[in-house]
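User
New here, explain this?
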Amino acid sequence: MSVSNILTSLNNQVQSTLGQNWRELDYVYNLENNNFKNASLGFAVGVKTGNQVTGTNKSATVDQVFFVSLTECFVNRYDDAKERQAISNLYDQIDAVTKDIFQKKLNNDKILVVQSFDYEEPNNPDESTVALTVNFIIKYRNNTF
């Protein structure tokens, strides 16, 4: 089991859950580098820190943090109503993604459990785009020993 294998499974699950109106962002770790003028709805999948945990003797058991970021563009006219609606929409979509990831464990038999998740505070990678990120701790076994 490799991190890239989990990233591929995660990316496939997110694309399947969100549908064809969503596009994969060009920049995963620096959302502000993306050109949001080309698409209203975007997603990014990435990996953060991880550590070995107690497991078996012949394989490494790892708790690794993976994340999914969703973005939506908005145009405020006289107030922040469009931005608030975009944030609400992103929470609805990220909730659907989270449920699928927990229920299906990314259809990957090396993943032992999706342990927990946390939402980061919404942020603005540019003046007319809002982003929402969810982090997952995924426990998996790596047969490298």
